[in-house]
Design a protein that fits this description.
The chain has a domain of about 30 residues. By secondary structure, the protein is α+β, with helices and mostly antiparallel strands.
């Protein structure tokens, strides 16, 4: 799956968490506000999650 670079505003990081070897930044300056934007976020999350599931299954893993 090719990666695309999104052009978003410079993030205003208000919280940072480290979980295992991952770092999660919480930004407060970019949020989906309209119902259409919210639906797009949900659709994107579903598509990416299923891509992860397919990748794991192709490598012989189970979920």
């Amino acid at each position: 799956m090719p990666k695309t670079k999104l052009l978003l505003p410079e993030p205003n990081i208000v919280e940072t968490y480290t979980i295992g070897e991952s770092t999660v930044h919480i930004c407060d300056n970019y949020m989906a506000r309209t119902p259409e934007e919210k639906q797009k976020v949900i659709q994107d999350m579903h598509a990416k999650a299923w891509a992860i599931v397919r990748d794991i299954r192709e490598k012989g893993g189970t979920i």
